[in-house]
Amino acid sequence: MSTLSPSNSPNPLIGVVMGSSSDWSTMQHAVQMLAHFGVAHEARVVSAHRMPDDLFAYAEQAGPRGLQAIIAGAGGAAHLPGMLAAKTTVPVLGVPVASRHLQGVDSLHSIVQMPKGVPVATFAIGDAGAANAALFAVSQLALHDPGLAARLQAFRAAQTEAARAMTLPV
Ligand SMILES: Nc1c(C(=O)O)ncn1[C@@H]1O[C@H](COP(=O)(O)O)[C@@H](O)[C@H]1O
């Protein structure tokens, strides 16, 4: 499995995986958010289609390695999040990456329409979806980490202040 992020932690709590290095411009927003909150994470390319044995190994090892969630981004026929969810009970957060021909609607439908019994929590297409998947993972970790909960509250407060300070060119 190839490694993309220089911030890979030796004991990651959150795994960020993507089907191709071409997904990095989107998925970097998940990694940046995890880094902002100081959450130990790793980022890797793991493709269900191109590296099926690696995908199975990653999914099988996710729980034993201590991962609390996997954020999985893919575009087009985005089977990666669903196949991870099929092989692990570690929560999978799916991020549809915008595709060249169908703008990510194909990715969204591929990820969100899971059969009953094998859930993937599906986020919005693109950069905001990647960032929100990370924020969701942070929220889950914050339930058992008061320091992280305080940082999340501060993030929300800063966001509120930034929205209140918005002005219009009129
Ligand atoms: N959807 C998947 C999977 C998978 O689901 O296993 N593996 C690669 N891909 C996607 O193919 C698109 C094009 O990949 P390339 O740019 O490498 O040709 C990417 O958005 C990737 O997520």
UniProtKB/TrEMBL annotation:
Q: Which reaction does it catalyse?
A: 5-carboxyamino-1-(5-phospho-D-ribosyl)imidazole + H(+) = 5-amino-1-(5-phospho-D-ribosyl)imidazole-4-carboxylate
Database matches in Gene3D superfamilies:
3.40.50.1970
Q: What is the lineage of its organism?
A: Bacteria, Pseudomonadati, Bacteroidota, Cytophagia, Cytophagales
Name its pathway.
Purine metabolism; IMP biosynthesis via de novo pathway; 5-amino-1-(5-phospho-D-ribosyl)imidazole-4-carboxylate from 5-amino-1-(5-phospho-D-ribosyl)imidazole (N5-CAIR route): step 2/2
Q: What is this protein called?
A: N5-carboxyaminoimidazole ribonucleotide mutase
Q: Which residues form a coiled coil?
A: none
**InterPro entries found in the cross-reference section:** PurE_ClassI, PurE_dom, PurE_prokaryotes
Gene responsible for this protein: purE_1
Protein function: Catalyzes the conversion of N5-carboxyaminoimidazole ribonucleotide (N5-CAIR) to 4-carboxy-5-aminoimidazole ribonucleotide (CAIR).
Q: Which SUPFAM superfamilies match?
A: N5-CAIR mutase (phosphoribosylaminoimidazole carboxylase, PurE)
- What Pfam family is a match, any one? AIRC
